[in-house]
User: Fold these one by one.
Assistant:
Number 1:
Amino acid sequence: MFEFHESASCTGIENYFIYLSGYENENRNMTGLLKYTCFIFIVMITTGCARNSGNGKKIPVARVYDTYLYLDDLKAVTPAGLPTADSIAVVRDFIDKWVRNQLILKKAELYLTDEEKDVEQQIEDYRTSLLVYVYEQSYIRQNLDTVITDREILEYLNENPSNFLLSESVVKGSFIQVPVTAPEIYRLRQWCNSDDEGNTAEIETYCFQHAERYDHFDDRWVNLSEVLEFLPGRLYNPESTIRSRRLVEMRDSTYYYFLTIRDYALAGEAAPVDLVSHDIRSIILNKRKIQIVNELESDIYNDGQNRGYFTIY
């Protein structure tokens, strides 16, 4: 059960804490009491009452069995400048989580065997792994060359094309949907079917005035299947179509549809370099990191061997 004791003076702040006497009653009135407790502590901290702890005696704020949470433990919980209401919420949440963790820990200690509770080796292994990882990451940050040229990316793609095969066809181009009543559609058709990049401005001006929809994706790769969904009818053998035709045109009773293909790459082929350049850049960086770590470990080993830092019996 929970009990809350209140003292009339600031010097009696040590009497503000929660008593938890049983796991089975851990949830009873916890939220309300913790909220009130946290509010008391925030007020005391902000008004300077906490300075009375300068006599060296720790001030408890919560207890689970024989384990205490002290006021000093809460100092690092809330950032400076946080509004009082937010501070109350943060501290309340911290205390609540601490209580729950301690209760679960106590239950684990009661029910686990001595062998199961012997985690010293796991803790040491984790500590070792964590320290080594932190050191390696620091060393990588100091020594990693992050400059990767376009030539390096292209070379990597050419050396590993099978790792970047497309699962579906992709295209660059544009899609236009205009009403059948729009003027001079024949001009729009000519512009879309032309290789002259100077027509782009004409197309954009026309579409701004008359198009129902205009999607321009000359500068990025789009899945062909997504583009074909814009068309009112099914396009049979689309891969063959985009290989042989620059412009795909359809019409229904209301609109003309123009799909212009500027570039394409088919499913099963190696992906275009600009589509996978980001992935390749990450791969190259990761390989450099691995190389740096391997060289670091080798250097440390050789240095330790030369200096007689270790002996293998």
Number 2:
Amino acid sequence: MNLINFILSLGVALLAVDMVSGADLPKEKGTYAIFNTSKGTIIVKMLEEKAPVTVNNFIGLAEGTKEWTDPKTGKKQKKPFFNGLIFHRVIKDFMVQGGCPVGNGTGGPGYAFADECYEKGEQVKGNVNDEQTAILVWTRILIPYLRQYNGNTPSKTVNQIYKDVTLQKNGKSIFGKTIEFYQKETGNKDPLYKQGKLLHGVSYGTLCMANAGPDSNGSQFFIVTKKDGCSWLDGKHTVFGEVVKGMETAHAIENVKTGANDKPVEDVILKSVEIKRVK
């Protein structure tokens, strides 16, 4: 290829990138994620006010500014996370899921962070003497601590409570101590709040975090394709975006042929995720 042809081909390539990047963005002010897939493009408006931590995490992974650990090598790195991954789980009339670096739903970025499903209610302090407070302590303080040590923590008290809760199927063994005790025991300094109003339902066209239970968010996400939404998931999955264009692409993905574990027979690739800001 001579120099002129190379320059011309480079210009065409750059023009193509610009066309995809622009992707008919809405004029409404906000931050948008452009999902460039092998089936087409999906544009999502990020819900920065409702789920700021989740949105920042997603943007950091997409742009390569947030450090993550490669599950295949164990090495920490900063580079665009989502480029080239597949939609590993697809269920018709439900959702399409991606964001797993190993392609089977077991991988993540090497860390986990809390849900953003509800507004913060009143701060809770002092004695744990009711079921609701015990559940808060369990989900917000003890579970993250147990997960950190794979169920065998340095705290004999926490380990015993874990055994009791799993056997008794209730939180009564958490009673009798203070929230401050549990915070000190686990090194968790975050204030504990009662559950406020639901921030956003898991409705049609929403971008949500996939998880393995409370406060286990990482990189996996799903887009809801069920027309009447998934109300049974409200409060269990953080909603951090809404599709504003490209639901036909999401439906094209949900309709591909799947095999074991709802995995597409032929890979549906997430070529890239671009972040665009409209001011």
Number 3:
Amino acid sequence: MVEKNSRRKPLNLRKMKGQDLSEQDLVRADLKGADLRGANLSYANLLEADLSGADLTNANLTGACLARANLEKTRFHRCTIERTSLKGAWLKQTSFRQVQLENVDLRNVKIEESSFVKVKVKAAKLQKAFFQSCTFKNTEISSCDISDAIFSHCDFAKSRLENLYGEDSRFIEVTWEKAFLSENKDEWKIEKSKKTGPQKKFVIVISLIILILGLVLFEQMQKVHSPKQKIYKEIFTLESQIRRESRQRETSLSFEEALSDEVIAPLLAKLEEKEAQLNKMNKDQERLWEEEAKKQLPRDLFSDATLKENVRNRYELLVRER
């Protein structure tokens, strides 16, 4: 891609910004962190050059050779990249923004954790290219040869991929949120791709609905359980009082005798009242459970006779514990 020319312009490495470096021989040049904003690098030979951390904003890279170059954390913003060779180059955390990559050679390139925002990639050679954890946002990739290319864990949000051709290309766990894919996408090997935007939104909506229903049910359960715990505490207090009064007697009173005792009888009456409240709460709680909504409790379940028997059993148990 680099045209040979007998002319050689003097190179000023101190002042790179806006410099005319066209057709310069910069093979293996150390341009780490260089400020190359607005520089003219058209048809320059940057084979195996170190451009890590360099800023190439608004630079002209038409026909330049950056094969096997180190482009880690290099910035390509609003620059011209046409008929440029990046074959075998290494890019990590590299930024492309508002750039058109046309007829660019990206064969065997390795690109990791890099971002492409509002980028147009057209008629590029992407054979055996490897993209790992890259972000393509509002990017168009069209009419490219992606034979044996691998896109792993990449995000193609709001991007457009069409007329891509070539065999054995692989897309592994990529995200297609609001992306447009051409009709020949079935020819690509798409493995474990994440859900598209509408599907993802549907899952989020369903999850929110389930969460809201869960919170409502929890609130209703709390309304039942909080007073229920209070009644259990009151029953425990009444039982303690009955046990204490029973121990003060020389002989144990039968249940019928206890019903006539001026001290224990009122406690038993309160205990019966709390039993009734507890039974009512249990019935209300069962109504909240959808699985038991159709189950109807017997009408005589909480009859006075049953309450009296419950209290009798509690009392006789307390007396035995004295």
Number 4:
Amino acid sequence: MIEVPAVTLFLRPAPDKPTLHVDDPTFFRQQLAVLVVVTVQTVRYLAGWEPSREVRSSYCCVMPNELTKEKTMRRLLIPLAAISLILAGCAGSTNAAAQVVPTGGTPMSNTIAVSGTGEVTGTPDTLIIDLGVQVLRPSVGEATGEAARLAQAVIDALKTEGVAENDIQTTNYSIWPEYDYRNDNQTLRGYRVSNTVSAKIRELDKAGEVIDAATAAGGNDAVVNGIRFDLEANGALIIAAREAAWNDAKAKAEQLAALAEVRLGKAVSISEASSPTQPPILYAEAAAAFDGATPIQAGQASVSVVVTVQFAIEG
């Protein structure tokens, strides 16, 4: 709907006219032609001419009754002429814009699109361990009570060894019946309760001692599901990996431009994805039987960054 002084024009395509997408250059040309037709027919109407049946069937023109034709014509012509010039400019620029704006995720024209990868390594600063207890007792009440006592002992041992309370989180609590199947008979053995937590150990040189203390607190019902290392203070590594990824992408683009005998321009589009990558390190339950502290090796952790860049082609 286009608002102009003292008049409202409603442009409605006829039912038999095809629908065009706004990205289609024909859309702007069609709308420009429609506005020109409406302008001409309005002026002719104000001069005493009745619009043709074809025009009335395709577009509705609602004219004011309270104004005279002479005043309405003077107020209409200037706004309609200005709008016609604007639409004409849009129609003339649509073809050029369509060549550079990406549609549907495809690369822009006249560009070179490349991906670069950067990876740096560092020493992990955090160990994350999943441990707890699994208790089998004849009744649910006995199983839940014993599991609660042992799980609390494990948590207390972690805290005593310096693990912060905010770094301890319950990750699983479950109860299920356990059966023996012999000679086609099903016999209830009892009820098993599992209660495990995830704990972050930030002092890696004490990790073995912390693990030993926690598993000892759980006794014969202690379980350790695994450990993994993390690099939480990885800001400097990400910066270094990002720079390496950029250099990799630019080197590829420069090579492609040289092979194609074109001149490489500035980057017009950049996207990034980063992820920590380190091999999982598992902790065997049998290790707790050693006399000394359980040996833990942090190894190296790596941070990887991938950048996707589109460079303009100049000249």
